[in-house]
Design brief:
Length: about 200
């Protein structure tokens, strides 16, 4: 079996699953309610990050704020990609309809996994992400739908950094929507209403 993640799974009533990816200091419970609210009927798979930074769970460590070890990211994304394959078999969901709802470190992890393991995650809503890895060569994400939501006054992820990430994902072939919220790094009701509209459009 793939490397295990502590997680929660909530079955759904439609053929789509949200992969809820918490931010630094969160856990598998953080985004459960949000995920169910923004994509009603979807199943929810919510893992806990496996690294620990001074008592705060993360999906991969950082060397300093905004500084990352790409080899460590490669290792952690491999673990997640393998585990998602296991979870799809265990819970019987369609991995081609697995969409991330990621915040901060969780969004960065989801995007890095999409870049390094195309097809492991179908797309999703990425809240306050930043570029953490640039594959060479770039993968073909084949139109994977992504919403990147930046914070206008985010002290951790300047808008220009989020915009650079959006450009990189578009270069890799993703279908990118980009939004700037009137907020900092924190999440607001505008983020959740925007995510709900995005998932509703995705469901058609």
């Amino acid at each position: 079996m793939a490397a295990e993640f502590i997680h929660k799974y909530i079955p759904g009533t439609i053929p789509a699953t949200i992969l809820a990816m918490h931010g630094t200091g969160g856990d598998e419970n953080d985004l459960l309610g949000v995920a169910r609210a923004v994509f009603p009927g979807a199943a929810v798979l919510s893992p806990r990050g496996k690294t620990n930074e001074h008592g705060a769970y993360r999906f991969f460590p950082r060397l300093a704020p905004g500084v990352f070890d790409e080899e460590e990211i490669a290792l952690r994304t491999q673990e997640l990609a393998e585990w998602l394959g296991w979870a799809a078999g265990e819970y019987g969901f369609d991995q081609t309809k697995l969409y991330a709802l990621g915040y901060s470190n969780g969004a960065n992890m989801a995007i890095a996994t999409m870049l390094l393991y195309p097809g492991s995650i179908a797309g999703g809503v990425m809240l306050r992400p930043m570029p953490v890895i640039r594959p060479n060569p770039m993968p073909d994400l084949a139109g994977a739908p992504i919403l990147i939501a930046a914070g206008e006054a985010d002290p951790m992820v300047p808008v220009k950094s989020a915009h650079a990430l959006a450009a990189m994902m578009a270069e890799a072939g993703a279908a990118v929507d980009f939004a700037v919220m009137e907020s900092g790094h924190d999440l607001t009701p505008e983020d959740f209403s925007g995510a709900k509209r995005w998932f509703a459009a995705l469901a058609g």
